[in-house]
């Protein structure tokens, strides 16, 4: 027993040592007094910025914006989340940060309904609450910060493909889900936009990959062989465009279609389409910069805790002008080309 | 045959002396954590935060109760997270399709117990390996959960239902009271009843127990039904607290639960262990997570620290 007591003692030392290390390393904290030097006047404020999970490159890119804003504004920011997209753990973490008496929280909810109780809890403690990246519209959150509305994105996709194919011809839509609201809203907007502005563009079909890259690839192959006169593929989610590009490239290499006959547009994750942009299979895509979302989230919380408010068209440093529509803040999208694809950190 | 029974009983009576030491070590560890975190964060030792920690550990705590029994009896239940998920979405699905909320609650518990009974039947009756069977049900039941919900969370319950997971009695959260009460009942059961003694005996020497005339199948079956039922209870509080039943509810929770039980000194091959130890193990995990959150330590470091804890807990079991 004496032996095991020693072991536990050793463990205790190890645990506390680790904690001390990680604290010194400042894995997630940006203590304003050390880093910013000069403007340490308003150091009392702290914000908790909570992505869906820690790990994916998308969130790491967002963290850069969050930390930059923390430095620029002289506020302490804590950027943390569970290692998986676990709603319960995420809510526990928000609750812990409320205990720490942060002044504001920015949450990308894993389950938009489940965060409602913890949000009202936060408001009762005068903590400002906003959502970012993903909204929880049925809660007491003050603002939602996103890149663009689904309708705007759908219209941008439609304009982009119509433009690339010269305003007439057959296109197919590729979606991640036929039922998810964020997909159907984009498809409806794109369809309506084409009907109104480019009546000669015909949408032959809409296929779903169920968020599976392999299935998206098979879908693209099937579309290419089913519609010999197809001129465009529109990807509505991250997995679609790279799969479409792969299928088109293979069809070109096999001699089944001519280079450049099928254009690709829609939403893209920069790192996934980088090679296709560079070799010309894809000309341009719509994307957004998560670091801008992160920056705007901290900036908005800072305004709210100062008793101020955001305004439509206001300029945010490092982000640009934002659109405010009711309780929704939009930072805008970027057109992704081979020239700027390396600038995105995800 | 009675001789073997006697032997089993006398051997069990010698157990407490070993346990007291393990438990005092756990108390020291917990106290160490409390002292350390209170020096690191002024918010740590506040009533609000302590309440938070207790509420946060109810899910793990409730499931860890039968898990202690299961592991002491020399088995393992990896399917508890999926059973929690299944009970949670059963509750949501039934309520959404017009069933009374309290009827839905009872049926969700029944589903949990039935899932546990399926494990128990295969393991106790048909002598299949517990780890293999529960990996099977872990995968199968989670699949069922996704079929029921089609991947979307089910929310919107009546206010009276939210009392379970969010309400308080005399300032103490109701879910914490239930967890404490169930821990106490389980403690008395394992200490004072034959079922408790048989559970230890099963983990020590299943053959001897069988020859002594004890119904091995029944005892083992019961531990798995309990495991399923408690996962169901945890699911009810989970849905009530988060106001939502999502398909991923309870995903991976078996790891936290087993970690708590092992840290609490229960032997991975059974025969030894205690509910007091498990309770302390649950508190240690909860305190560690909460304290590190309050300090703003990245979740990536938290995972490493929890892993170290498991390794040390198991290193004490090499004999």
UniProtKB/TrEMBL annotation, chain A:
CDD domains: PBP1_LsrB_Quorum_Sensing-like
Major localization listed first in the record, in broad terms: other
Record carries keyword Nucleotide-binding: no
Signal peptide (UniProt feature, chain positions): 1-27
Gene3D superfamilies: 3.40.50.2300
Pfam families reported for this sequence: Peripla_BP_4 (PF13407)
Domain of life of the source: Bacteria
Location within or outside the cell: Cell envelope
Gene Ontology CC entries for this record: outer membrane-bounded periplasmic space
Entry keywords, A to Z: Signal
Boundaries of every Periplasmic binding protein domain copy: 50-308
InterPro entries noted in UniProt: Bact_Solute-Bind_Prot2, Peripla_BP_I, SBP_2_dom
Region (Disordered): 25-44
Coiled-coil annotated residue ranges, if any: none
MF annotations from Gene Ontology: carbohydrate binding
Protein name: Autoinducer 2 ABC transporter substrate-binding protein
């Amino acid at each position: 027993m004496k032996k095991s007591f020693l072991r536990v003692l050793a463990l205790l030392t190890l645990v506390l040592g680790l904690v001390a290390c990680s604290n010194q390393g400042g894995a997630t904290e940006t203590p304003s007094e050390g880093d910013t030097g000069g403007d340490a006047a308003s150091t009392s404020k702290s914000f908790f910025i909570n992505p869906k999970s820690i790990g994916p490159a998308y969130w790491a890119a967002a963290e850069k914006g969050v930390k930059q804003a923390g430095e620029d504004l002289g506020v302490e920011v804590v950027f943390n989340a569970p290692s998986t997209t676990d709603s319960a753990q995420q809510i526990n973490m928000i609750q812990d940060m409320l205990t720490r008496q942060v002044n504001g929280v920015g949450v990308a909810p894993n389950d938009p309904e489940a965060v409602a109780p913890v949000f009202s809890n936060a408001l009762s403690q005068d903590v400002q609450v906003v959502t970012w990246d993903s909204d929880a519209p049925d809660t007491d959150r003050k603002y939602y910060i996103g890149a663009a509305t689904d309708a705007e994105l759908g219209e941008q996709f439609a304009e982009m493909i119509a433009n690339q194919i010269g305003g007439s011809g057959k296109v197919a839509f590729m979606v991640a889900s036929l039922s998810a609201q964020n997909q159907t809203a984009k498809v409806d907007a794109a369809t309506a936009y084409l009907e109104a502005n480019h009546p000669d563009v015909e949408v032959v079909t809409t296929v779903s990959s169920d968020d599976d890259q392999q299935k998206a690839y098979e879908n693209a192959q099937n579309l290419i062989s089913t519609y010999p006169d197809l001129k465009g593929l529109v990807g509505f989610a991250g997995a679609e465009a790279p799969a479409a590009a792969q299928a088109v490239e293979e069809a070109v290499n096999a001699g089944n279609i001519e280079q450049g006959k099928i254009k690709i547009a829609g939403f893209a994750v920069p790192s996934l389409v980088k090679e296709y942009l560079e070799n010309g299979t894809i000309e341009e895509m719509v994307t957004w910069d998560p670091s801008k979302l992160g920056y705007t989230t901290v900036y908005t919380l800072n305004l709210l805790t100062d008793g101020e408010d955001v305004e439509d068209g206001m300029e945010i440093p490092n982000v640009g002008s934002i659109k405010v529509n009711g309780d929704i803040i939009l930072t805008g999208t970027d057109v992704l080309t081979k020239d700027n694809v390396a600038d995105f950190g995800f | 045959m009675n001789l073997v029974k006697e032997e089993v009983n006398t051997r069990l009576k010698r157990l407490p002396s070993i346990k007291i030491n393990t438990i005092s070590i756990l108390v020291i560890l917990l106290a160490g954590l409390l002292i350390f975190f209170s020096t690191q964060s002024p918010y740590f030792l506040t009533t609000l935060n302590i309440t938070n920690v207790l509420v946060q550990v109810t899910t793990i705590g409730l499931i860890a109760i039968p898990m202690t029994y299961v592991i002491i009896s020399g088995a393992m239940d990896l399917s508890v997270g999926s059973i929690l998920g299944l009970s949670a979405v059963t509750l949501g699905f039934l309520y959404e399709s017009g069933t009374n909320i309290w009827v839905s609650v009872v049926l969700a518990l029944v589903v949990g117990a039935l899932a546990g009974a399926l494990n128990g039947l295969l393991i106790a009756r048909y002598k299949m390996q517990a780890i293999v069977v529960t990996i099977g049900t872990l995968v199968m039941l989670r699949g069922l959960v996704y079929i029921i919900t089609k991947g979307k969370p089910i929310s919107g319950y009546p206010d009276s239902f939210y009392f379970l997971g969010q309400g308080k009695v005399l300032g103490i959260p109701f879910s914490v009271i239930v967890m404490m009460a169930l821990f106490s009942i389980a403690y008395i059961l394992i200490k004072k009843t034959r079922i408790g003694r048989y559970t230890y005996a099963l983990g020590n020497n299943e053959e001897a127990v069988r020859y002594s005339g004890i119904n091995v199948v029944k005892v083992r079956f019961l531990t798995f039904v309990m495991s399923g039922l408690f996962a169901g209870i945890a699911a009810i509080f989970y849905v009530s607290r988060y106001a939502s039943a999502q398909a991923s509810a309870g995903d991976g929770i078996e790891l936290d639960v087993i970690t708590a039980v092992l840290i609490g000194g229960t032997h991975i091959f059974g025969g030894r262990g205690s509910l007091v130890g498990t309770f302390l193990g649950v508190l240690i995990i909860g305190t560690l997570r909460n304290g590190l959150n309050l300090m703003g330590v990245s979740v990536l470091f938290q995972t490493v620290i929890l892993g170290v804890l498991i390794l040390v807990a198991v290193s004490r079991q090499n004999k």
